[in-house]
Amino acid sequence: MTSLTLDPFRSLKYLPSIPEQIDNVLLATGASSSMDYSIVEMIQYDPAMAMAVLKVANTPIYGYSGQISSLQQAAGLLGPGMIKNTVLRIPILERFSGKTALSVDYMQLWIHSGIVAAISGGLGRLIGEMESDVCFTAGLIHDAGVIALSTYFPAEFAKTQDFADKNQVGLMEAEQQVLGFSHLEVAGEIMQAWGLPLQLSQVILQCAKPAKNNTHWELAGIVALAKSFASEWGFPSGLKDIASTERGGLLDLLGVSEKKLDQWEPELKKYAEFALDTMKIP
User: Fold this and answer.
1) Alpha helices (runs of H) in the chain, residue ranges in sequence order
2) Cα 282 from chain centre
3) Which of 95, 153, 182, 236 is the right S-S partner for 172, CB 3.0 to 4.6 Å?
4) In total, how many domains does the chain have?
């Protein structure tokens, strides 16, 4: 087991984003009118930018500390100027590549996160009695712990991947064996330190295996189901064999029949296609 603990993650200020996303924001800042109208569109599929904006929106100065659970709520509260100032402080992933070879395909992870967000939001609308914006945001940031762990501590993360390969186990089991905690717990620590709503951290902590006796189990089940669809439709995270609840178990949990899901699938695919087009990632 390595000497790394969860403590350093509490002091992180930002998660890094991919260069393509940073470039999109930098280009847009040159045209203020464009920036006003497109800033939310540009960041709505970027987990690092979404986390930064949520962090600012949940600070006490805005009067809603620990209450802003969706990127859409945060954007409405902050306005384009503050959002722009926030995202321009986000570091670029390339600056971390000098530490050691980064072992994650971040382009693939960003696309996966955006697709999961879109499907989660769609499922929230279709299932009903769910806040689709919160579903969307939870789906977008569900792998925040992977981003933090693999970029700030790439050597330790690489050890977990090696362990998973050599012992033929899932990534989270490997993380527990090598580190003593998983990337889900990393995300939980960051969210708590940044003052994000408990709702979001509870969903992330259980989205690999949601259970009905847990708080916010339905939202966690939606994210897990969205992950399943994203992988099935050709947009997996690229991470090594993260064990998750079987599709049938998720449907039982959410009270959704296979027939109903088949009826929803064309609409969910449209949400995914729209996300892919909007992300503008080559």
Assistant:
1) 19-28, 32-43, 47-57, 71-87, 106-127, 132-140, 144-152, 154-167, 171-178, 183-193, 198-206, 217-232, 247-254, 258-279
2) 20
3) 182
4) 1
**Has residue 21 been placed in a domain?**
no
Give 123-138 as a 3 state SS string.
HHHHHCCCCHHHHHHH
pLDDT tens digits, 42-71: 788 999 999 999 999 999 999 999 999 999
CATH of the domain at 176: 1.10.3210.10
Has residue 265 got a pLDDT over 80? yes
CA distance 107 to 111: 6
Answer whether 206's CB lies under 8 Å from 217's CB.
yes
For residue 256 the two structure tokens come to 């959704």
Please say whether the beta carbons of 34 and 28 come within 8 A: yes
Distance CA 158, CA 156 (A): 5
The CA dihedral of 30, 34, 37, 42, to the nearest 10 degrees, is -60
Q: Supply the pLDDT for residue 2.
A: 86
- The pTM score is 0.93
Of 21, 27, 28, 30, which Cα lies nearest the Cα of 50? 21
- B/e letters for 135-149, b = 16+ CB within 10 Å, e = fewer, are bbbbbbbbbbbbbbb
> 210: domain range?
104-279
- Asked if residue 220 belongs to a domain, the reply is yes
Q: Which residue has the tokens 């955006």?
A: 114
For 93-130, write each residue's pLDDT tens digit. Answer: 776 655 544 578 899 999 999 999 999 999 999 998 88
